[in-house]
Every structure is written in C-alpha cells, then in structure tokens.
Design brief:
- With 351 residues, this protein is of the alpha+beta class.
- The protein is built from 7 helices and 22 strands.
Length: 351
Amino acid sequence: MQSQIELLNNELFRREEGRTATSQSGRSEPDDLMDAYSRAGINAAEKVSPSVVYVEVQQPNRSRSGNRARMPQESRGSGSGFVFTPDGFILTNSHVVHGANRIEVTVADGRKLLADLIGDDPDTDLAVIRINAPNLVPAQLGNAQEIRVGQLVVAIGNPYGFQYSVTAGVVSALGRSLRAQSGRLMDNVIQTDAALNPGNSGGPLVNSRGEVVGVNTAMILPAQGICFATSIDTAKFVASRLIRDGKVSRSYIGMAGQNLPLPRRIVRYYDLAVESGILVVSFEESSPARNAGLLMGDIIIGLDDHPIAGIDDLHKLLTEDRIGRKSTLVVIRRTDKLVLEVIPEESRSRT
C-alpha cells in the first residue's frame, strides 16, 4: 500500500512540474510546432529573397491594322524571376519575356537594370535573361527528386507589382502534366497550394532549407489553391541549353494529326500495346514524314520501340537526340500494319 501511495505522489509531482514549466515558458507543444513552422518559412524567405527579381517588359501590340491608330504601340507586363548564377543569369517564365523588345529588372537592393534575353523555351515556359551587375546573390538550386507530397514550400514573387511577396503551402501533388502555350505537354510539374497571383510567374518555389525546387508558372483561375511550378530539374536542363545555344533543340517530322481510337478488331488482330493513335491529316512541304512515305489517313501507333497512343506521346519522343537519326514509324494503313523509315529534322518552331 505504501509503495502505491509513493508512486501516486511521484506522478502527481511530475505532472505539477510539467505544468509549472509550461506556465513559466508560456508555451505548449502546439505553440512550439507553430514556431517551428514559422521559423522554417522565415529562414527560407530570408535566404532566397535577395535572389528574387522583379521583371518588367515592354512588348509591341499585335492589333489588327484597322485598330492600330487607336491602340498604343507598346504594352507593358511584369513578372518575377531569380538570379541563379553570380554573373547575372536569371530564370523566369517564357510567357513573361517572350517577344519583349525591352526587359528591365529590379533587384533586391532596388537597382533597376536592363536585361538581355538569352533565350526562351515556350514548350516548358522557361526563359533565361541576364543582367550585368556586381554583388548579386544567386539562389541555391535544389533537387526535385527529393520533393515529397505534403512538404512545406514557399513561393516568392511580385504579384500585381507588390515586390518580394511570400506565400507558403505544401506540395499537393507531383508528376502533373500541364499544357504549355505552345501546345506541348509539360511533364513532371509540381502542384502546390502556395498561393500564386498574376506577377508571381517566374518566381522561385522554395523548400524549408531555402533551396529552389521549382519555377512558379501557372494557376487555375476559377480554383483556389491549385497552382503549378515547373520542376527545377527541368529548369536546370533547359537553362543549360538556353545559355549554350540560345534555344532548346527538338526534332520534328512535319505532319499534323489528331488522336483517334483504333478499331477493336485491329488492336486484337495485331496485338497492339495501344488502343489509339495519331490520324495523319496534313503535311508540311518536303517534310520528313512526307519523304518517309507517310500518307494522309495513316494512323501512327509507334516510333522505334515506343508505342504511341496520341500526339503527346509523339512530342515526348521527338527529342534533340533524334535529329538526323534514322527512326522507324509504325503505322496502320487501312487494315495493314506498316513500318516506315523517317529521319527527323530539327524543329524550326519558335512559338
């Protein structure tokens, strides 16, 4: 009996000490968690904000000739970006700077500088511009492979011209696909609920360590909390090509088509890996596809050893390394399965 009383007294004493310590510090466990969350956001923002820039552009108006006299000759736009090298290279969105005839950048210390367009890639909505200025602070680039759903992220940008605005949220999903303005599908897009607004485009998406894991690119206007960022791994690759060549080279075969379901009897007869393909509806003059013997009405179902169920599959396969290299197109012509040789050329599309 005596030992039970001692145990009870000890437990009551321990609880009383815990309450006293809590009252003295003025904090509880939820408070500590909120403080940790706040510190993570603060550290990320303070580390990356010196690298974030405000991008202002002037673009010629593309109005109809009848309205040209009444319209201003130029329109202005703005967005965000971030310095990623000490010598002034800046990542931003293609749709922010594409077609601009003047680009001005305001850096964190208030300096306003003219920027040169190094190159832009509408297919991934990425662009690289450059400024010539001392004492720039480059952002640290992270690794998109380490991102996890539910992870804290911070978006920094200049929505509606309010410079260096910070929003926080979590990674909502990974591996999303998003249609670029050029029509190509962007893969490995990060979905986040860190709020984005017009002007955030091109700004960094940052993890709690202050590493850039994405480039903010778009939001769904009617929705709340559905925003997207291009993976930093994609951005690294595109930026290296833009700095080296001023463009990202891709191959093309010069045909237009539309996705079309295949008849079930054709799928079963040839034991196809896909149930749809690309119906060829037109060609460019002297295109690789026409030179290969492709005809209007053919249905493309494969390129080399890769099945093709639609136009997006073909776009993914027409990469730089296929330029000038003999490839095989698998097509259905009427009820026959044919294999044609095609040599893709470098794409001339810049939009």
